[in-house]
Write a structure and sequence with these properties.
GO molecular function, one term: pyruvate dehydrogenase (acetyl-transferring) activity
CATH class: Alpha Beta
Structural class: alpha/beta
Domain Dehydrogenase E1 component: 36-310
Strand order of the largest sheet: 2-3-1-4-5-9-8
Oligomer: single chain
Number of domains: 1
Protein name: Thiamine pyrophosphate-dependent dehydrogenase E1 component subunit alpha
Helix content: 40-55%
Order of helices and strands: HHEHHEEHEHEEEHEHEHHH
Coiled coil: 269-296
CATH architecture: 3-Layer(aba) Sandwich
Keywords: Coiled coil, Oxidoreductase, Thiamine pyrophosphate
Number of helices: 11
Radius of gyration: 19 Å
Largest sheet: 7 strands, mixed
CATH topology: Rossmann fold
Distance between the termini: 44 Å
Length: 319
Amino acid sequence: MYEQMVKSRYYEDQMVEVYTEGKAPVFNIGAGPVPGEMHLSTGQEPAAVGICVHLTKDDTVTAPHRPHHHAIAKGVDLKKMTAEIFGKETGLGKGKGGHMHLFDPDVKFSCGGIVAAGIPHAAGAALASKMQGRDWVAVAFIGEGAANAGAFHESLNLAALWNLPLIVVVEDNSYGISVPKASSTAVASNDLRAAAYGISGAYVKGNDPIAMYNASEEAVARARAGQGPTIIEIETHRYLGHFQGDPELYRDKAEVPGLRQLDPILKLRNMLLEAEQVSEKEIEKIEKQAKKKVDEAYQFARDSKYPEPESALKDVFTS
């Protein structure tokens, strides 16, 4: 879990630098090696690693438009993922999907991009698992704002009705784009909504990867045993804006330094060392290996070719 969190954080830190290349002095969203919007998950790593450590490649994960930490935790090919974000032909979707539409069927990972769009897909995967008599689990990651969308309620109603192995992880990072949670959501936490469907719910405080691990372990075990869906909401923190270049006029900038003092990666690192589960030398080795893999992925993406214009409609279903 620590290695995956470090890898995810370093990946996002590198993306901040790469994404800004060629976009100054006037911010141009289409310029540079990575065009388009960019939504980074710095600070939200515990939500992904805490549950994905319990999953196999046969379990399905769907992610929203802030998907990198989910993809890394699920084991998506890092080189192909980065090449896809760069729009290169060696990418997961041969450069056609980009950052918000990452798909890796080898590990059953998909990113819908649109708010709440991944929940029906995950419910479909959970239904397929049940119909085939498998013990596969489907996990849908969403932001807390997406819990107010129709797809959330419709999917959970059916999942409860059909007793599907679906887990919805709500990442409460305090803002639905620029709207504070208290201004958009009638309940204090979305796990409370589980009662409306007669299913299990759990709340994880403090952006704690160990608490997320424990809550997820129970939810995954229930799903595999045929005991139905679970809603898990985790209190997490978005250190960066909704998108890169976001002026964040809705946010008190003073809150971010305080959040970083409670950084979940640093907390887990200190806990491992204090418990003498690892040595400083082992921690350094883990961090070095994680960063090496990220550096290799970015270099692979830079070295890869852009697709030829005539390939735009290749491998695309057309009627």
